[in-house]
Amino acid sequence: MNKSQLIEVLAKQEGLTLKKAEIVVNTFFDSIADGLADGKRAEIRGFGSFKVKSYEGYTGRNPKTGEVIGVSPKKLPFFKVGKELKERVDEED
User: Fold this and answer.
1) Which of 37, 51, 62, 64 is a good FRET partner for 82, with 20 to 30 A between their CA atoms?
2) Band of the pLDDT at 91, cuts 50, 70, 90?
3) What is the tens place of the pLDDT at every residue in 4-24?
4) Average pLDDT of the chain?
5) By three-state DSSP, how is residue 30 classified?
6) What CATH number has the domain bearing residue 55?
7) Confidence of residue 92 (pLDDT cuts 50, 70, 90)
8) Looking at residues 27-50, what average pLDDT do you find?
9) CA separation for the pair 81, 45 (Å, rounded)
10) C-beta of residue 20 within 8 angstroms of C-beta of residue 33
11) pTM of the predicted structure, to 2 decimals
12) Beta 48-55 vs 68-71: how paired, if at all?
C-alpha cells in the first residue's frame, strides 16, 4: 500500500473527502518525521516504534574502482516492529 492508497482507504472508511484524508495522513507522517528530526522517539502501540540510530564513520572502498574512501558518521531512522504486528504478519493461512 502506498500513501495515495492509504488516503483513499481512510477517506472511504471515515466518510472524509480525499483532501481532508490527505491532510490527516500528511499531518500524521509529518509529526513523526518532525519528532525524529528533533531526536525524539515515536511509538505506535501494537504497530512498532521509530527512532534515530547514529552510525560511526568508517573507511570504505569504492567497489567499482577499489579506491579507499572515508564514509562520514550519519544518523538514520530505524523502525522496530511491535509484537502484535509481528504476530499478525506471521499468522499462517
Assistant:
1) 37
2) confident
3) 999 999 999 999 999 999 999
4) 95
5) helix
6) 4.10.520.10
7) low
8) 96
9) 10
10) no
11) 0.77
12) unpaired
User: What is the rounded distance in angstroms from the CA atom of residue 34 to the CA atom of residue 38?
Assistant: 6
* 77, three cell numbers: 531512522
Nearest residue to 55 (alpha-carbon basis) of 74, 69, 72: 74
* 54 within domain boundaries: yes
Segment holding 89, helix H or strand E: helix 83-90
- Round to whole Å and give the CA distance between 8 and 11: 5
Boundaries of domain holding 27: 3-84
3-state secondary structure of 90: helix
Q: Which of 72, 75, 36 is nearest to 54 (CA)?
A: 75
Grid coordinates representing 18 are: 480525499
Amino acid 20 reads: K
Distance of alpha carbon 6 from alpha carbon 22, whole angstroms: 9
Q: What is the mean pLDDT of residues 13-41?
A: 97
Does residue 89 sit within a domain? Answer: no
| Alpha carbon of residue 81 to chain centroid | 11
